[in-house]
Amino acid sequence: MTLGNWQAYWNQTLSDTYPKEEIRSLLIRAITDRFNWSAIDLITRKETVLSALDLDWLNSVLKRLQSLEPMQQILGYTWFCDQKFLVTPDVLIPRPETEELVMYLREHLKGKVVRKALDIGTGSGCIALSLADSMPQTHWSAWDVSTQALTVAKRNQEHFEQQVNWQRQDVLQTWPEEHFDLIVSNPPYIPQNEQYSMDQNVVDYEPHLALFVPQDEPLKFYSEIIQKGFKCLNHGGGLYFECHFEFTQGVAAQMQEMGYTQVKKWKDQWGKWRFVSGLKP
Asked: Which of 25, 153, 174, 251 gives a 20 to 30 Å CA spacing to 257?
């Protein structure tokens, strides 16, 4: 079978499951991973005959996509801040919004002295590792309640020079007696009742522990981090959150009530309120 024939089969097979543009995007991801080809190769190489081994691999990917398994989990990795990160069903797939937060912090903290920093709810380790890579003088710690997630983060550590202190820690329990100049967190923030309107590939394949909070306690983790973080931050230290777009105002209000200064919220690239930050005076 030629690449052109295969593309037609791919498009037809997935047409009832995915939008047209996403079908093309998924195919490009597949051929890039398998052959190191680009989108233009779908045209220039359409007469290329695919081997039986390659067809078996592509059929396997196609079958898993039909079951709505995320492509990142099928391939075993995703790209985040120009770095390749291992992903498994034990961690959230890093999102563009989280990448925005990392890029903001890279720029915002440029030239500032940050001796110790903490990433809460680290998952794959994408925030801690991406920031540690651009902040070589900073000692980073990263917490997660999931030992499986920490295993993934430690494997991602192998591709970075900077070392991170990975710790299993439940933020709802007593925190270690440490102090930091920076705390960043993307904790669970989706109310459980929203799962019924979410994409099935997220609900079925990503860890609910990292996604959902009780619908009557949407700020459960933020409240803990705001309160305990105030005690653990050094004077002038900053707390930075990624949030549900409906709850940024509530997070900002709690931070102001606790005594944080210069509290602000800002929008993501899609125009939704997404991030909140503040400083300990």
From this structure: 174
